[in-house]
Specification:
The complex is a heterodimer of chains A (409) and B (420). Chain A has helices at residues 2-16, 18-38, 60-70, 84-92, 106-116, 129-162, 172-186, 205-213, 216-230, 232-244, 247-252, 258-287, 296-320, 324-342, 353-359, 363-375, 381-408; strands at residues 49-55, 75-80, 98-102, 123-126, 192-198. Chain A contains 17 helices and five strands. In chain A, 69% of the residues lie in helices and 7% in strands. By secondary structure, chain A is of the alpha/beta class. Chain B is an alpha/beta fold. Chain B has two domains: 2-42 and 217-419, no CATH class; 54-195, D-Maltodextrin-Binding Protein, domain 2 (3-Layer(aba) Sandwich), CATH 3.40.190. Chain B has helices spanning 2-16, 18-39, 72-81, 97-105, 119-123, 142-174, 181-195, 218-244, 246-253, 255-260, 266-295, 303-327, 331-349, 351-354, 364-369, 373-385, 390-419, and strands spanning 54-60, 89-93, 111-115, 130-136, 204-207. Chain B has a four-stranded mixed β-sheet, with helices on both faces. In chain B, helix 3 links the parallel strand 1 (54-60) and strand 2 (89-93). In chain B, helix 6 runs antiparallel to helix 7 (181-195). Chain B is elongated, with a radius of gyration of 33 Å. Classes of the chains: A alpha/beta (409), B alpha/beta (420). Chains A and B meet through helix 2, helix 4, strand 4, helix 6 and helix 7 of A and helix 2, helix 4, helix 5, strand 4 and helix 6 of B. Strand 5 (192-198) of chain A pairs parallel with strand 4 of chain B.
Chain lengths: 409, 420
């Protein structure tokens, strides 16, 4: 009971300070929204890459290519008919991901290529990185289909002429045009297509669609994990104040043992972090449409494990710090380092393999893995159990260190 | 002179404090190093982004063959396993579609490529159209996108031959020609030649956007410039606040009251503390700028704009610290205010740093970052890195001075009111 009394005392102390209470909830919500909107937000409306298009050719073929890009599911033409210099500036200013420039003579060169053996004029993609690669792949696919249709028409004409089968009264150009149109139409229903599907156990179609495209699916757990550690500034600060004001020493003269005192403070931190995470999960579920509650048991277990780990870190910080300034340092340094390493800001997929191997050993990487298993893969308790085990191991290690530091003090 | 003595005393205290040194130098450098490893190669120092190798669970269920060519499913599988793609793709053969999907579900593979039973038949113009299924891990983007692009290009290439041959034969049939096996083979051969590497040519070419290779040491150096610049700004505000927080510390320790009993005026005392903040911040920023230049080869920009940006940061960080300290009652409040408020405003102000390179970032977020002093403090550094015109940088500096003036006057007014 004394443990609970001590925990309740700590919680009352923290809740009374409205500023820290606001920061516990306001900061992760604000940054979840900001990071989410910064990287595209909930882009279910149009998740396609914004590009600019400059058609310097104006031929039938270039218009066909532009039409293919307009119908693309990967890119969307945000700027049309602007000068190349304008598009270059917009790419440099990151207003569009890439600019597509169809050069003058594109159509003519492509039509001449089968008969003359000359190379078609390449379409220029102004951009870089992954977005440039994505835009290039889409343009490549469209241009390749056009080239294929030209090739089909040319080969058909050549074969027909070589066997003297060109219909009476039909010109070569008319025959070519008909064959080209036929080949292009055949691409509407090609013999082989690609079906894209994702691994997801989410049963509600809307949940799956929302979660797949929602950048909040990454920023929400990332910011929750990061600011759970930031929230330790208040909780760990109580331990420091206790030491400085000698309240801890006075507590030790009572019947409470050191372990009971530690347990009381740990319980307060755990409850505080658990409540913080729970409120943020509800916020994510209700306002961001994230399917945290599609697997309620798994979500609860990951949240409990995260709260355990964070509370144990808080105990170590509180035990080790000698002043408020040190509490701030010892809270913010792990917050930034663990968030960066754990993929809370940038998905680990974008980092080198060696970095991923190191990062996967850090606790926040396991927190992210657990929540992403639920939010994006729609998986349950079995899938998150490695994350639960890892977090409990971290909890045990940190608690042992905290107890040792406490006893030393 | 007394103000200077007080300043020197505070400086000695700051540079002796491990916590202060960690905040001023260690953390900004550490975060920058983390980002360097996040976005670059760990060994080798190459200035390029490393594309991850994707594990592909491949299930080839193709049963048919295209006459004269063989199994197209086996052909596709061989291309994916080829040496050319070895750096990008690692193929694991699966016996069934279910096994391939399970490998992705269990995160043993990033994507499953399932070649259907009627793949060759569809390409031979027999039977129904076929679908190659790409089943990917939804938490991955790059690897599946690369594999999808590769498979798409190969499949499209195969389909183009089928379509071309089909169109030619249909038009010959329409002309009442006799379609003999020799004619069919002749047509297929002509498409095979057309599709051969000797006949293929690039349909696209990449061009870097302007400014991409502007002598900043490459993309990595430019990214690090933003990151280290952002961290420098972020922690400069902590430094300013911590140095001026000594006013409250001394009040709680009683040394402030003792100082007040001496002939030293309050103005001299607070001036000394403010001068200490200015000098410490100047040292911090100078060291970080130099470190970035020497170690990460960061080109901060022309000297004058960089000096203006640095001066702006020194002034606004110190005056913000003064303002915040004037709002606090004791050092305990300082822990939450400095840790919480400065973290919040710092991250809002540095959003433009976190979103560098993202094409979907709304422009409005740039405006949001300017609602806090950190956003303005970062702005001239960005302008200097990007080589913006001096009048624009001067204008930003003028706004920074305005913010600083407001903070300074409010801060010193409140402190004088409290202690006079």
């Amino acid at each position: 009971m004394r443990i609970i009394d001590l925990a309740l005392k700590d919680l009352r102390q923290i809740m009374r300070d409205r500023k820290s209470f606001i920061f516990l909830l306001a900061m992760p919500i604000v940054f979840t929204l900001l990071f989410g909107y910064a990287f595209g937000g909930n882009s279910t409306a149009d998740p396609r890459l914004p590009i600019g298009l400059a058609d310097e050719d104006g031929s039938e073929l270039s218009r066909q290519l532009a039409a293919m890009l307009a119908a693309s599911e990967i890119v969307r033409i945000q700027v049309d008919d602007a000068a190349v210099s304008v598009l270059q500036e917009q790419v440099a200013d990151e207003q569009i991901a890439a600019a597509i420039v169809i050069p003058a003579g594109f159509g003519e060169a492509m039509l001449q290529a089968p008969s003359t053996g000359s190379a078609p004029l390449p379409v220029t993609i102004i951009g870089g990185g992954q977005t440039g690669f994505t835009a290039e792949a889409e343009v490549q696919a469209g241009a390749a289909r056009l080239k294929s249709a030209v090739q089909a028409a040319s080969q058909s004409l050549e074969t027909t002429v070589s066997h003297d089968l060109l219909p009476e009264g039909s010109s070569r150009q008319a025959y070519f045009d008909d064959a080209f149109a036929e080949a292009l139409a055949a691409w509407e229903q090609p013999p082989v297509t690609i079906l894209h599907d994702v691994s997801s156990a989410l049963t509600d179609e809307e949940e799956e669609e929302n979660s797949r495209y929602s950048v909040f699916a990454h920023s929400s757990p990332g910011m929750m994990a990061q600011f759970a550690i930031a929230g330790l500034m208040g909780a760990a600060g109580i331990l420091v104040v206790e030491k400085k004001t000698k309240s801890l020493q006075r507590l030790l003269t009572t019947n409470m043992s050191k372990d009971q005192i530690m347990a009381g403070h740990f319980l307060a931190m755990f409850v505080l972090i658990f409540l913080q995470l729970s409120v943020l999960i509800l916020f994510g579920q209700i306002f961001l449409g994230l399917p945290y509650l599609s697997q309620p048991l798994a979500t609860m277990l990951v949240t409990i494990a995260t709260a355990f780990f964070t509370a144990s870190l808080g105990m170590l910080i509180g035990a080790a710090a000698k002043s408020q300034e040190q509490v701030v340092v010892l809270s913010l340094v792990p917050m930034f380092v663990l968030a960066a390493l754990g993929g809370a800001w940038v998905p680990l997929e974008f980092t080198p393999e060696a970095y991923q191997r190191i990062a996967s050993l850090t606790p926040l990487a396991w927190v992210m893995e657990g929540y992403l298993d639920i939010l994006v893969r729609g998986q349950g308790v079995v899938a998150v159990s490695p994350a639960l085990l890892a977090l409990l191991i971290y909890t045990a290690v940190l608690l042992i260190l905290a107890v040792w530091q406490f006893r030393v003090d | 002179m007394k103000a200077l003595d007080i300043a020197l005393k505070d400086m000695r205290q700051s540079f002796r404090s491990k916590g202060a040194i960690i905040f001023m130098f260690v953390i900004p450098i550490l975060i920058t190093v983390l980002f360097y490893f996040m976005f670059g190669r760990i060994a080798g120092g190459e200035d390029s982004f490393e594309v991850p190798q994707t594990v592909v669970a491949l299930a080839n269920l193709d049963e048919g063959e295209v006459p004269g060519i063989g199994s197209m499913g086996a052909f596709l599988a061989d291309v994916l396993r080829g040496e050319d793609l070895g750096d990008l793709v690692k193929v694991t053969a699966m016996s069934s579609a279910a096994a391939a999907r399970t490998a992705v579900d269990n995160q043993e593979a990033g994507i499953a490529v399932i070649i259907p039973a009627g793949f060759s038949d569809a390409l031979a113009g027999r039977g129904e159209p076929a679908e190659v299924e790409l089943y990917s891990d939804p938490t991955l983007t790059i690897g599946p996108a690369i594999v999808s692009s590769i498979v798409g290009q190969i499949v499209d290439g195969m389909a183009s031959t089928t379509i071309g041959v089909g169109v030619t034969i249909e038009r010959l049939e329409a002309a009442n020609a006799e379609i003999t096996p020799e004619i069919v083979q002749e047509i297929i051969d002509s498409y095979t030649v057309a599709a051969s590497p000797q006949q293929s040519s690039a349909l696209t070419r990449m061009q870097a956007p302007p400014g991409a290779d502007s002598g900043s040491g490459g993309e990595m150096a430019e990214l690090l410039a933003y990151i280290l610049g952002g961290m420098m700004v972020f922690y400069a505000f902590f430094t300013g606040a911590n140095v001026l927080n000594t006013i409250l510390t001394e009040q709680e320790n009683g040394t402030l009251q003792r100082l007040f009993t001496t002939p030293t005026s309050h103005l001299t005392l607070f001036s000394g503390k403010f001068i200490a903040a200015l000098i410490i911040l100047t040292v911090q920023i100078a060291v970080l700028l130099l470190f970035g230049y020497l170690v990460f080869h960061i080109e901060w920009g022309d000297p004058l704009p960089v000096v203006i940006a640095a001066a702006g940061l020194v002034i606004i960080a110190a005056t913000t610290g003064l303002f915040l300290v004037s709002l606090l009652k004791d050092t305990r409040q300082g822990g939450i205010i400095f840790g919480g408020l400065l973290t919040l405003t710092g991250m809002v102000g540095l959003f433009t740093v976190f979103t560098v390179g993202s094409p979907n970032t709304p422009q409005a977020l740039d405006t949001v970052s300017l609602l806090v002093p950190q956003g303005w403090a970062m702005r001239p550094f960005r302008q200097a890195i990007e080589g913006d015109a001096l009048p624009n940088i001067a204008l930003t500096f003028a706004v920074i001075l305005l913010w600083s003036a407001v903070f300074f006057f409010v801060g010193q007014y409140r402190l004088r009111k409290r202690f006079d």
